[in-house]
């Protein structure tokens, strides 16, 4: 649990660092989604966000620094529960500020912090445990540990269940089409892409792995061994994904998510190697038993005064566990909505809790099928003397030839996700704000030639079976002028 806490905190810090590079673009009124547009087009009235309190970059910077401070506190295990709550609130807030750049990994990171509020992940390897003797026992069982394990299972079972297209179930062409998306293709994917039959076999392997691997989490015999197999499989699975497809922080979030499952034997091995730095950092050496159930960690109630809040928190464990089981049932119901029969759908009047506390989640990665529409952007700026410059490539002359690496054109995965949402007809309202934002940035630089017009052009290329594509079509998505 301590490793889980530290890994989640580290991912939150990395996420904040990446987001901060687009502070103005994604979170202020001068960017692609001003506050009045957010509230008019993409806001859920049940949601909350302190990041919507101002459209100034200075306020956003202060909120980002606050979130980073809370994440550092969580990493060190200082006032762990408070830092967990604050980190969760600020993460929900920043995600709600710009939903057009949110991806599946954000849901998992959010849920890890949510269930972490109720986990004792600050009991060891934490400042809160400094100068305290190790717990008498490490076995711990509660609704929170059940919720954590079930949440991990839901991620993979639901994404497999949602993959209902023939590309996944019968044809086995899903990975072929996924690697045909040049905006996602990584160098490892280029090596796999020419092997059509291998991709078919890997497609079926991926589907059944996602569907059946979570069974390992619930085997009651030799549980630590099966959990270790699950962790190793997840690390291998997401390592391959990260080498073949551009998925941002998704693979790191999944790495962090399974660390709470590591058996005590693995932690004993780690502690023997990290013991000296841990003692220097926290003044405490956690002596782990050689064997235990991975989701068990019993914590004594006679804690150091710094952890007094936790003792009071456990005064009504039965009531707490009851509430958590209800929340878990609600989460399962939300996940099954859309998979099960419509008679069992989660009706709108019951959805307010999921929206408010952001326990809403959807694991439709490449589901029900894989997009076949691919392409690349050209930001076609026409100068006053008639030249055509591509702002997407630093103002070079426009060329309609396909770039070698379309993925490399995206600054980060947030912009890639934004460009994906930008294409949908239902999101056409996004287009003028993006166009005007780009035009303003260009015109503010006195070294750039003045533009008469800017057009956002998409070169659409539809993938067909067996390495064929439809002819590339030039589509003008939006235009703007000074």
Automatic annotation (TrEMBL):
Its main location: membrane. Keywords: Membrane, Transmembrane, Transmembrane helix. The keyword Phosphoprotein does not apply. The keyword Endoplasmic reticulum does not apply. One of its GO terms (cellular component) is endomembrane system. Residues 1-266 form the HTTM-like domain. InterPro entries: HTTM-like (IPR011020), Sporulation_signal_mat (IPR052964). The chain crosses the membrane at residues 57-78, 108-126, 138-162, 174-193, 205-223, 229-262. PANTHER family: HTTM DOMAIN-CONTAINING PROTEIN (PTHR39535:SF2), SPORULATION-DELAYING PROTEIN SDPB (PTHR39535). This is HTTM-like domain-containing protein.
């Amino acid at each position: 649990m301590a490793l889980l806490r530290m890994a989640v905190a580290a991912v939150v810090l990395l996420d904040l660092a990446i987001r901060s590079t687009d502070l103005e673009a994604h979170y202020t009124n001068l960017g692609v989604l001003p506050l009045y547009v957010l509230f008019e087009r993409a806001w859920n009235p049940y949601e909350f966000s302190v990041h919507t309190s101002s459209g100034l970059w200075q306020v956003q910077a202060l909120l980002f620094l606050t979130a980073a401070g809370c994440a550092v506190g969580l990493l060190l295990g200082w006032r762990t529960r408070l830092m967990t709550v604050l980190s969760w609130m600020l993460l929900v807030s920043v995600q709600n500020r710009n939903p057009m750049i949110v991806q599946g990994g954000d849901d998992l990171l959010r849920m890890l912090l949510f269930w972490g509020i109720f986990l004792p992940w600050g009991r060891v390897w934490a400042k809160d445990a400094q100068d305290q003797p190790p717990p008498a026992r490490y076995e711990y069982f509660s609704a929170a540990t059940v919720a954590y394990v079930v949440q991990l299972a839901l991620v993979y079972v639901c994404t497999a269940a949602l993959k209902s297209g023939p590309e996944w179930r019968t044809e086995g062409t899903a990975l072929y089409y996924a690697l045909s998306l040049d905006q996602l293709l990584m160098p490892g994917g280029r090596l796999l892409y020419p092997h059509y039959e291998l991709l078919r076999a890997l497609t079926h392997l991926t589907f059944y792995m996602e569907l059946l691997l979570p069974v390992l989490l619930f085997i009651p015999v030799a549980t630590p061994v099966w959990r270790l197999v699950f962790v190793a499989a997840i690390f291998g699975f997401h390592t391959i994904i990260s080498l073949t497809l551009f998925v941002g922080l998704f693979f790191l979030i999944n790495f962090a998510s399974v660390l709470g499952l590591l058996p005590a034997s693995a932690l004993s091995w780690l502690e023997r190697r990290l013991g000296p730095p841990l003692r220097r950092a926290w003044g405490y050496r956690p002596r782990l038993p050689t064997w235990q159930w991975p989701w068990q960690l019993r914590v004594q109630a006679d804690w150091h005064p710094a952890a007094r809040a936790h003792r009071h928190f456990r005064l009504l464990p039965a009531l707490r566990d009851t509430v958590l089981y209800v929340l878990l049932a609600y989460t399962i119901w939300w996940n099954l909505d859309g998979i099960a029969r419509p008679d069992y759908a989660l009706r709108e009047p019951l959805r307010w809790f999921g929206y408010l506390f952001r326990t809403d989640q959807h694991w439709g990665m490449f589901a029900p099928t894989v997009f076949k529409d691919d392409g690349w952007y050209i930001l076609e700026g026409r100068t006053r003397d008639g030249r055509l410059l591509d702002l997407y490539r630093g103002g070079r002359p426009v060329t309609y030839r396909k770039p070698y690496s379309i993925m490399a054109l995206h600054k980060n995965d947030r912009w890639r996700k934004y460009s994906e949402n930008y294409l949908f007809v239902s999101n056409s309202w996004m287009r003028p704000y993006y166009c005007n934002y780009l035009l303003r940035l260009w015109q503010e630089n006195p070294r750039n030639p003045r533009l008469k017009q800017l057009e956002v052009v998409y070169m659409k290329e539809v993938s067909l079976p067996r390495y064929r594509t439809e002819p590339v079509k030039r589509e003008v998505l939006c235009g703007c002028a000074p």
